[in-house]
Amino acid sequence: LTQNRMTVVEHATENLTSHVRTMALASDAKWDEATGAALGEPTEAALVTDAAKLGFTTSHLSQSRPRIGEAPFDSGRKMMSVVVRGRDGVMQHTKGGPDVVLARCTRYLAEDGVVPMTDELRAQVMEQNKAMADRALRVMAAARRDWGDSEPESYDASYLEQDLTFVGLSGMIDPVRPEVKAAIEEARSAGIRVVMITGDHVDTAVAIARELGLVEGRGQAITGAELDRLSNEELTERIADFGVYARVQPEHKTRIVDAWKKEGKVVGMTGDGVNDAPSIKRADIGIGMGITGTDVTKNVADMVLADDNFATIIGAVEEGRRIYDNIRKCIQFLLSSNLAEVIAVFVASLVGFTILEPTHLLWINLITDSLPALAMATEGAEKDIMERRPRDAKDGIFAGGMGADTIFQGVVISLLTIAAYFIGISSVGASVADVVASDRAGLTGMTMAFLTLSMVEMFHSLNMRSLRGSIFTLKGQNKWLWGSLAIALLLTFVVIETPLSVAFDFAELDLEHYAISMGLAILIIPIVELEKLVMRSIEKGERRG
What we know:
Helix content is about 50%, strand content about 15%. It is an alpha/beta fold. It is elongated and about 115 Å long. About 40% of the residues are buried.
């Protein structure tokens, strides 16, 4: 959601030098003298950069205060502690979430020295923390512990992180990506709900979520501690009430995914850390971060975001819908065309005449079927594609009336083909009895049937640019489709009007025959347009109902 470019913009401390030094020492990011930038995890890089502005680079600090032990960051504790040895002895530097750090502090670093922590000072710190969080700042707290001349007996976190002296707060901002708010609105119109799961303080999370339009207030947010008080059944019942989950642990993420899935939702889960792997694997669609994501997360993810940008997910949804649409269009076009051939040949066989020969069917399948079908795969997304509700994951390829559409269109195409045949034989004075008695009597009808079927399929491919929308309202053109139609049209006339016609048993057609065949073929457009109009009206009524 954010640009992953943390910058410290505010401090709340009575000893700025001690504060920024503690933050830098309790970080694993490094200051690169050559580039003048910090390298490492974004939050720690921001703290190291802040310290470097005051002259406390990591190389300088590591020489004057070398690290002798540490308690690494843990998502459960939300803290990290480092023990260093300096001129004044052994000192521990701790950073972490303000609430968890403050809970372990018994003293406070004031302007004139260390004083006992009081309820008044504790309330003052929490007020400063809330003020920063309400402005969508991510807040980190710094604390220290003086060990004198001797090292701690243990570097276990439970031993180190107690009896601390509170030093100060740093408020940093990670700007929201400018394209994310529009992407979230687009997701909402597409029937996709976006929820935020974060380890940040709830006030920070709510502030960012409000800016993005995910929630309206604190009432739609829940913390990890509050989640612990809910049973799985209670969470499932209330899961739709929450748009923000703050201060969560890895196990909470899995519970959240499971609760949404129990509601019958298809769940996509993003993450970058090792602790995110279980929830990413549990989700229907696991999404790993390509830049900041760990190898473990990428390996269990179904898709990886190369740019770590939420808007890319919505772009992928749109592309997925376009591809699925185009697959259905190709299938409907090919099946309706082939069904028409089957019906026409079957009817002719029942009566006892030949409407199309095997070579004709092979030519149609290779040229007037295949070329437009391939071009349909390049069709752009329809303008309302991100305004549709998500399809049911259990829906088959023929859902939404596509099966009925295919049969109807196949029957119409076969009737136009058969009509062309009978018009052709009547134009030369032949009857059904004549063509049953001799196939040669039906050559003109067979040629007109071939031409009509070829032209119908070309015009029908234009219908299939949208399964429900009118082709007259579509914006833009598919140049590949027009190119395939031009090639198919040229090859069709070549095979009828050149010496190749002898090999195909085609009769010579005059201008009137061509006009009739083209007239019959173009009828497929208004017929299908009328069918789409009826189906749109029916579907609109069903949605209202």
